[in-house]
Amino acid sequence: MKLSVVVPTYNEQATLAQVLHAVRSVELNGLDKEIVVVDDGSRDRTAEVLGEFESYPEFKIIHHERNRGKGAAVRTGFSVATGDIFIIQDADLEYDPVEYPQLLEPIVAGHADVVYGSRLSGGRPQRVYMFWHLVGNRLLTLLTNLLFNSTLTDMETGYKVFRREVVQGFRLRENDFRIEPEMTAQVLKNPNLRVYELPISYYGRTYDEGKKITWRDGLKAVSVLLRCRFL
User: Fold this and answer.
1) Domain of 76?
2) How many domains does the chain have?
């Protein structure tokens, strides 16, 4: 089996190299690995940083000519990835690739089709900060569970793992952060998919440290959840 790590990135020159080295070095207990990096029209030194990885055979590096949003970058990555299992890895340092093996285990063992890494289920290190982001995340997750009769604890998590067949069944159209609720809604609308959650660590960033998502993205997520549920 092979894991495809899809890395959407935009203006992450400060953290990108460290993240990619961490992804490259993580041990996967016999799984092959490819790393698909999509530079979404970065205007900093991201392209220069990626040049250091072009010689590694496990890397596929794609550049968008202009910034189109995280969703567009994820869709591009999905379209060229060739693995049996897909995981999305943000290009900052909020999520630790060392946790891949535990996230992959339910799929490799044949128990799950989708695995979400939950920042909110306890048991792993969490940065203590940004109260209103926590409130917004819990409200969005609650709305998701009400609309789709599910029991997720962290709908907006960046660590989402899918079997290839799940990704092939997606009909994604969102270009920005709305792709997160769009993927979740399409997963939960399919009664045949086995969805699991596992606790993960979360080393969150402040806006001064480069965090990009805002409360406006939360309002957009609500509209996507409603659209996917009722249309």
Assistant:
1) 2-230
2) 1
Q: What distance in Å separates the CA atoms of residue 151 and residue 130, rounded to the nearest whole number? A: 24
Helix, strand or coil, per DSSP, at residue 162: strand
Rounded CA separation 50/64 (Å) = 13
Say if CB 49 and CB 91 are below 8 A apart.
Answer: no
CA distance 50 to 161: 24
Angle between helices 131-148 and 179-188 (to 10 degrees): 30
Block residue for tokens 């289920």: 121
Going by their DSSP bridges, the two strands 160-163 and 114-118 should be labelled as antiparallel
The CATH number that applies at residue 119 is 3.90.550.10
Q: What is the pLDDT of residues 157-214, one digit of tens each?
A: 999 999 999 999 999 999 999 999 999 999 999 999 999 999 999 988 777 776 777 8
DSSP string covering 98-149: GGHHHHHHHHHTTS-SEEEEESSSSSS-B----HHHHHHHHHHHHHHHHHHT
- CB environment 68-79: b (16+ within 10 A), e (fewer): bbbbbbbbbbbe
